[in-house]
Write a structure and sequence with these properties.
265 residues, alpha+beta, Heat Shock Protein 90, 6 strands
């Protein structure tokens, strides 16, 4: 039976298999403002790359391909190789853009962005991700949406690097007070004391994730043991006024729907 430990310092573990890495603390307005500014800068850079370098690479590749179609055989081969190299450069640029600003996250919401991530990691890393998302984006702000996405992405990358399996499960849910996420794999697992405390480089990815969660006033619990896979659970408190707003918006929709029904009758 695995149990989650508790900690006020943020890294106390019970002997064995579970540990709370991030204890809640008072949120820092400065950290939140800084994170928001950094995210806006990343978004701007991604747009510039897409509209600038990305389009230029595609245009140049098309020009070379058109020239190759009219060139003599010995030149056609060189032009084809150059075009192929440009296509590879464009693909690399697209990956950088996706890392900086995930498709759909801003415009469509968390669930569509996570669906894109699952498809992306299946194609790139051969990782099959089972996704369960039951949240309302109106209950938390854009910065929280971005944070949740990036935490899940980093945890899935850890699965690819360390678990030695090609499947993972992601659960995202919410209650009136909390937003929760889980990333679960049935891989090799690891020993906390050996993998994180004695040789911290092996657990740098998790410590990096834990630091982001701590700065956002959340809590991360890791449940693992050698040969028993790994389950990372993260919980954030929702602001009461944000959830009340969602409820009121839903009530307004229901009221409007009732009025329409009465008019039809």
């Amino acid at each position: 039976m695995r149990e989650a430990g508790s900690s006020t310092a943020g890294r106390q573990c019970r002997t064995g298999v579970a540990c709370v890495l991030s204890a809640p603390r008072e949120p820092s307005p400065g950290n939140r403002h800084k994170a928001g500014a950094e995210e806006r800068a990343r978004r701007s850079t991604a747009v510039d790359l897409h509209d600038g370098i990305g389009q230029q690479l595609v245009g140049l590749a098309l020009t070379l391909e058109a020239a190759a179609a009219r060139a003599p055989p010995e030149t056609r081969l060189l032009l084809g190789e150059a075009s192929h190299t440009l296509r590879q450069a464009h693909a690399s640029t697209q990956r950088v853009i996706a890392d900086l600003s995930p498709p759909g996250l801003y415009e469509l919401g968390l669930e569509p962005a996570l669906q894109w991530l699952a498809v992306y990691m299946r194609g790139r890393d051969n990782l099959q991700v089972t996704l369960h998302v039951d949240v309302d984006d109106r209950a938390f702000d854009l910065e929280m949406r971005i944070l949740i996405f990036k935490l899940i992405r980093e945890l899935l990358r850890n699965v690819v690097k360390h678990s030695r399996v090609n499947t993972a499960t992601v659960n995202v849910s919410m209650t009136t007070r909390h937003l929760s996420l889980e990333v679960i794999d049935d891989g090799v697992g690891f020993e906390w004391q050996l993998s994180l405390f004695d040789t911290p480089r092996e657990g740098f990815g998790l410590w990096s994730v834990a630091e982001r969660i701590r700065e956002a006033n959340g809590e991360m619990t890791v449940d693992t043991a050698p040969g028993h896979g790994c389950k990372v659970s993260v919980v954030f408190a929702l602001k009461a006024n944000e959830f009340v707003l969602v409820v009121r918006l839903d009530e307004q929709k229901d009221y409007a729907g009732d009025e329409k029904s009465q008019i039809r009758e």
